[in-house]
TrEMBL record:
One of its GO terms (biological process) is homoserine metabolic process. This is Homoserine O-acetyltransferase. It is found in: Cytoplasm. Pfam families: Abhydrolase_1. Substrate binds at R202, D320. It is an enzyme of class 2 (transferase). Transfers an acetyl group from acetyl-CoA to L-homoserine, forming acetyl-L-homoserine. It catalyses: L-homoserine + acetyl-CoA = O-acetyl-L-homoserine + CoA.
């Protein structure tokens, strides 16, 4: 695996809110080799709690023998601002402060994430990206970037995402933040603050990531006599503990707020007008059982992005299907690229 690399922006970034975040550090990884024509670049935008190691969190789609094989492609994945995986976030000391900002970390929007990664693209000297791909939060970032830089991206692939974060999605995020805020340790501003709240938040989020059918299939209680300690309860506890072990409450709050800011139509008239600015050949993928980003949201994208192709995956995994159904995604990509698979 390629080592994590860092780009330091000493002047920082002026955020969409008007605040300045400085200095700024962007953590990223690359896989594979840039070819002589420099036309085999795939840029991956990751989801809420992921990191720059796309080969680690999207196996089956990225990796040796997978559709996006580093033997063929030069793959770039950068960690987003606000995260806890190397890029500047709530646990990173900034400015003249000797201590991290924790809960005082400023609001960063989807457009701020794009600004940071646009600076990285320019630093890497990548003038043309063959494919920009992302799901969920990563899809929101990819859409915004493709609108801002229509001449850079030849292909755009977005999965389980939307043009504007919905009231439903914002409500789920607020419910999770309330769980974190209810943990008194969050307000103390320490590296381990808010862990109990984060566990509860993750358990809440999981209900929007999966589906009724998925829980029925995997978490049904085999013992009809059981009165407590149900399998589904243990599953929620386990998933909460897993996130606490690898993520941070302050980053979780910061990035959920980032997701809430997503609205491609802001300052551009409306959503349809904004989406019509995309020039990349686009594939929009939805998941039949996704209750967080339902197919109607992807259908809207496909209607307004010029020439976009649309496909709906039949899956019982809900929103998480974009990470799990790599076989179906591969088939859709093979069909999508047939006319233009030149790199």
């Amino acid at each position: 695996m390629t080592d994590l690399r860092l780009l330091n922006l000493s002047a920082g970034l002026v955020l969409e809110s008007g605040a300045t975040l400085a200095p700024v550090q962007i953590a990223y990884q690359t896989f594979g080799t840039l070819n002589a024509a420099r036309d085999n670049v795939v840029w991956v935008c990751h989801a809420l709690t992921a990191n720059a190691d796309v080969l680690g969190w999207w196996p089956g789609l990225f990796g040796a023998g997978d559709y996006f094989d580093p033997a063929d492609w030069f793959i770039v994945c950068a960690n987003v601002l606000g995260s806890c995986y190397g890029s500047t976030g709530p646990l990173t000391p900034t400015g003249n402060a000797a201590e991290p900002l924790y809960q005082q970390f400023p609001l960063v929007t989807i457009r701020d994430l794009v600004a940071a990664h646009e600076a990285l693209r320019q630093e890497l000297g990548l003038t043309r990206i063959h494919t920009l791909i992302g799901g969920s939060l990563g899809g929101q970032q990819a859409l915004e970037w493709a609108i801002q830089q229509p001449g850079v991206f030849a292909h755009l692939v977005v999965l389980a995402t939307n043009a504007q974060h919905s009231p439903w999605g914002i409500a789920f995020n607020e419910a999770q933040r309330l769980a974190v805020f209810a943990d008194a340790t969050y307000h103390e501003g320490t590296p381990t603050g808010g862990q109990r709240g984060l566990k509860a938040a993750r358990a809440t989020a999981l209900l929007s990531y999966r589906s009724y059918e998925a829980y029925g299939r995997t978490q049904a209680e085999p013992d009809p006599e059981r009165l407590d300690a149900f399998r589904a309860s243990s599953y929620q506890q386990h998933q909460g503990d897993k996130l606490v072990a690898r993520f941070n409450a302050y980053s979780y709050v910061a990035l959920s707020r980032t997701m809430d800011t997503h609205h491609v139509g802001r300052g551009r008239g409306d959503v349809a007008t904004a989406l019509r600015q995309i020039r990349a050949r686009t594939l929009v993928i939805s998941i039949s059982s996704d209750v967080l980003f339902p197919p109607s949201e992807q259908q809207l994208l496909a209607r307004h992005i010029p020439g976009a192709a649309y496909a709906e995956m039949d899956s019982q995994f809900g929103h998480d299907g974009f990470l799990i159904e790599t076989g179906q995604i591969t088939q859709l990509l093979e069909q999508f690229y047939v006319p233009t698979l030149v790199h």
